[in-house]
Please model this.
Amino acid sequence: MRRAIYPGSFDPPTLGHLDVIERAARLFDELVVAIGVNTDKAPFLPADDRLALLKECTSTLDNVKVTTFQGLLVDYARSVECGVLVRGLRAVSDFEYEFRVAMANRKLDPSIETVFLITRDEYSFLSSTVVREVARLGGDPSGFVPEPVARFIVGRRG
Ligand code: PNS
Model:
């Protein structure tokens, strides 16, 4: 059984995240999408909403599970018997941060591999930060996020 974790803040989940989820789900028997919960930082969307939205967005993908985790990612990976971490890489600018985190994770647990999926061209500009900015300023998020997420963000405005 090849099980991988795709960890992230997903605050909010974007079309780029969904693309990585769909592609990773084809590469592994099971993919655990794991929402990292940072209790010190006020999120844009509460973790429960991110969990529900990601479940809705991945409901047709039978081998994808969505969960939350706290603490170190490698500890969580071990607790669910998972030896592979998947991360998306958009551009060279992502590389330095991703390299540092992958190295730290390898130091913490050398048995866990990080694999990178290169983002599709059309999502190379896309980030949750961009979506948060668009959403906060009243813009239309529908070109950036899956439909349930766009509906949720617009619905919150009342
Ligand atoms: O989508 P993001 O914000 O880049 O996701 C970051 C996340 C949640 C994957 C990362 O911050 C994380 O793994 N946090 C848990 C703490 C940890 O294990 N950090 C890596 C060692 S420095």
Observations:
- The chain has a mean pLDDT of 96.
- Residues 7-9, 36, 72-73, 101, 104-105 surround 4'-phosphopantetheine (CB under 6 Å).
- The first helix runs from residue 15 to 27.
